[in-house]
Amino acid sequence: MSAHAPAVAGGIEEAAVHGSERGFARLELELNDYPGPLKTSLFGIQHVLVMFTAMIASPLVIGQLLNLTPEPGFISVCGRGRR
């Protein structure tokens, strides 16, 4: 059995691999840890900005690469065309 294989004790797998035992990466938080209000807020803002940018930039860049008029990009970003 290798050093990283889960050990079976009493029918329950014990696959707890923590920070220094993972190799090259050191984890600050485990699965059920709470990072605190400041880190949680910053991670939330980062997530919103990245997702918003991806949702807006993708249709505009693809439309420009396909030499489409601006209207299909507008429709794909807003969800509706001109009335």
What does this structure look like?
This protein has two helices and two strands; from the N terminus they run ββαα. It is mainly alpha-helical. Helix 1 runs antiparallel to helix 2. Strand 1 and strand 2 form a beta hairpin. The longest helix has 29 residues. Strands 1-2 form a two-stranded antiparallel ribbon. The protein is 46% helix and 7% strand.
Low-confidence stretches: none
* Overall pLDDT score: 75
Instruction: Indicate the proportion of strand residues.
Output: 5-15%
**How many individual helices?**
2
Distance between the termini: 68 Å
Tell me which oligomeric state these chains represent: single chain
The overall strand count is: 2
From the helix content, strand content and strand pairing, which structural class follows? mainly alpha
Characterize the largest beta sheet: strand count, sense, and whether it forms a barrel. 2 strands, antiparallel
Fraction of residues in H or I helices: 40-55%
- Write down the secondary-structure element order: EEHH
